[in-house]
From TrEMBL:
This is Hydrogenobyrinate a,c-diamide synthase. The a and c carboxylates of hydrogenobyrinate are activated for nucleophilic attack via formation of a phosphorylated intermediate by ATP. CobB catalyzes first the amidation of the c-carboxylate, and then that of the a-carboxylate. Keywords: ATP-binding, Cobalamin biosynthesis, Glutamine amidotransferase, Ligase, Magnesium, Nucleotide-binding. Residues 252-434 form the CobB/CobQ-like glutamine amidotransferase domain. The lineage of its organism: Bacteria, Pseudomonadati, Pseudomonadota, Alphaproteobacteria, Hyphomicrobiales. PROSITE patterns: GATASE_COBBQ. Its EC number is 6.3.5.9. NCBIfam families: cobB, PRK01077.1.
């Protein structure tokens, strides 16, 4: 699906939203990606908001890397540029929304609707039809008419019980004038396992390819794919993007495995574009960061699930100490911050010795969920602007000695939060995931 504008052919795009979380956006988006791929349609996947796990699933289904489009943390210019770049060479940009369509940060911005309006893309609303019949019509009409700049172009009915139930829903929707693109029957096989931070990683789903095949078959059978494609709108040409966050060093060694899986592709792409060399290593395989690196990045992930293995990773920990001793910048986010500490206490209350570069103990045996967008002002040696946008999402907590914090922080509304993280020389980290400059 291409549109011609000013002599240039542009891919089209569409956003998959829902009235609330848990409606089935992720599974339906996965099924759409795989079903279109079966037909030879090239679809570029994207995820609204600061999500790490859903993009991993979307990329596996599309056989094409997904990108995050975060309308709170990223500037409009960044979003438009990322969307246009991601859509390059594709027939369709398919964007999975986050939470309910109009749900955003505590300052009432950053919603899926905000992104759809900015990119001028129509929304297909996934409605969980369980325990509902004719009331679906005022529900959909309310979402469609709530904001003039947001166009709800179609509806997918999910978890439909019977053919009779489907008829009742479709008949009611006819009064709205909004296209019903299909009805997905209730199916226990179309559920992705979850854990404390959300979905599990794709590699942890038993028979993941079979799951995707089933989703593609179901979506292909029950959704009018041609009609959905016809609703898509052209992706606007991206202006010159703002400067990306500067690389942490000229050669950045980045931890990447199941314990350190939370990386934003736009950051890595920006660092490469600015000439940085990136190398990757696996702490779970007891690999050390490259001895030639002048920066080490430990991203977030699930180190609490691998405490014993990380504690035994002597080569990895010696490599971090060597990096510190040669004055490399060592930066850890969330799970990476936990591993830079002295001890990690797992869910069972068992303590595991970590790298010991920061006098911090983290524990998840007393879980408390902390999440939200963060406005950050940093006091470390990071080569980034002083003011940053990021987010926080974790169940563990940190106890640390008196140290210089890495960030002064507020929430999205600007309300003050306790200082975050710790800095000793060029070793630093916090629970914050940095997304972009403020």
């Amino acid at each position: 699906m291409w549109a011609k504008r000013g002599g240039i052919f542009l891919a089209k795009g569409i956003v998959i939203g829902a009235p609330r979380s848990g409606s089935g956006k992720t599974v339906i988006t996965l099924g759409l990606l795989a079903a279109f791929r079966r037909r030879g349609t090239v679809v570029a996947p994207a995820k609204t908001g600061p999500d790490y796990i859903d993009p991993a699933f979307l990329g596996r289904a599309a056989l094409r890397d997904a990108v995050n489009l975060d309308p709170w943390s990223m500037s409009p210019a960044r979003l438009k540029s990322l969307a246009a770049t991601q859509a390059t060479g594709a027939d369709l940009l398919l964007v999975e929304g986050v939470m309910g369509l109009f749900d955003g940060a505590v300052d009432n911005t950053g919603s899926t609707a905000d992104l759809a309006e900015l990119l001028e893309l129509p929304v297909v609303l996934v409605v969980d039809s369980e325990r509902q019949s004719q009331s679906v019509a005022p529900l959909v009409a309310g979402f469609a008419n709530w904001r003039p700049g947001v166009r709800v172009a179609g509806v997918i009915l999910n978890r439909v019980a019977t053919t009779k139930h489907e008829r009742m829903l479709v008949d009611a929707l006819s009064a709205t004038g909004i296209a019903c693109l299909g009805a997905i029957p209730r199916d226990a096989a179309l559920v992705v396992p979850e854990r404390h931070l959300g979905l599990v990683l794709p590699g942890e789903v038993t028979a993941f390819e079979a799951f995707i095949d089933n989703a593609a078959e179901t979506i292909g059978n029950f959704i009018d794919l041609d009609r959905l494609l016809s609703l898509a709108a052209p992706i606007a040409e991206g202006d010159a993007p703002p400067q990306p966050l500067r690389p942490l060093g000229q050669h950045i060694a980045i931890a990447r495995d199941d314990a350190f899986a939370f990386l934003y592709p736009h950051l890595l792409d920006g660092w490469r574009a600015m000439g940085a060399e990136l190398s990757f290593f696996s702490p779970l395989a007891d690999q050390a960061p490259s001895a030639g690196s002048d920066a080490v990045f430990l991203p977030g992930g699930y180190p609490e699930l691998h405490g014993e293995k990380l504690a035994a990773a002597g080569v990895f920990k010696a490599g971090l100490i060597a990096a510190r001793d040669r004055d490399a910048l060592i930066y850890g986010e969330c799970g990476g911050f936990m591993v830079l500490g002295e001890t990690l206490v797992d869910k069972a209350g068992q303590g595991h010795a970590m790298a010991g570069l920061l006098p911090v103990t983290t524990r998840i045996d007393r879980p408390k969920r902390i999440l939200g967008y963060r406005r950050l002002v940093h006091a470390g040696d990071l080569p980034w602007p002083g003011r940053l946008h990021g987010h926080e999402f974790h169940y563990s907590s940190a106890k640390q000695s008196r140290l210089t914090p890495l960030f002064a922080a507020t929430d999205a509304r600007g309300d003050a939060l306790p200082p975050m993280g710790a800095v000793i020389g060029r070793v630093m980290g916090s629970y914050a995931h940095v997304v972009d400059a403020a």
